[in-house]
Design goal:
The complex is a heterodimer of chains A (112) and B (111). By secondary structure, chain A is mostly beta strands. Chain A is 0% helix and 50% strand. Helices cover 0% and strands 56% of the residues of chain B. In chain B, a hairpin with a 2-residue loop joins β6 and β7. The chains are: A mainly beta (112), B mainly beta (111).
Chain lengths: 112, 111
Amino acid sequence: DGGITQSPKYLFRKEGQNVTLSCEQNLNHDAMYWYRQDPGQGLRLIYYSQIVNDFQKGDIAEGYSVSREKKESFPLTVTSAQKNPTAFYLCASSEDGDQPQHFGDGTRLSIL
Amino acid sequence: SQQGEEDPQALSIQEGENATMNCSYKTSINNLQWYRQNSGRGLVHLILIRSNEREKHSGRLRVTLDTSKKSSSLLITASRAADTASYFCATRRGGGGKLIFGQGTELSVKP
């Protein structure tokens, strides 16, 4: 079955620590996206990538970094510069920018 | 920045009733999409309507789009308890696949 896998499901970060959230897809999609969702809110775009080795900042990129070295993988690093990282992080992919997005089941990040 | 705004923020109905959710947006769009999110899960795509379309159906779902009013509505007919979820509209403006999501409508269907 094709899909998007996010891991871990729950993650805890200590002060001053960088953490990396994994996102893998086997849908052969070119485009991938990272969103942040706060309680009772919609999704806000952090970073997106339309093709391998290329990515662009979204609306709230500060304190985050990404890489896109492989088509199937788009990891997100939450750096220590992100002062309010507690949120639900969702990864998505699509065939191209005009198609609907397929989502993983999210990673919930909390502060220790 | 949030482009879409859903109305109402929360909706509670009985099983068998219809549920209508509305979405308004601010700038011109290429398409508008509706997604569903069960608690603690990722979003699932429901339906996409392009800017040159006025209405689309998918099973018990009916979506309308009025570009002159910059608004869309999602109708779920004969609702079931399993329809309980949050529903989001998302608009796509230009290239790059960037979607702008609204804040969602939380639907509760009571058996």
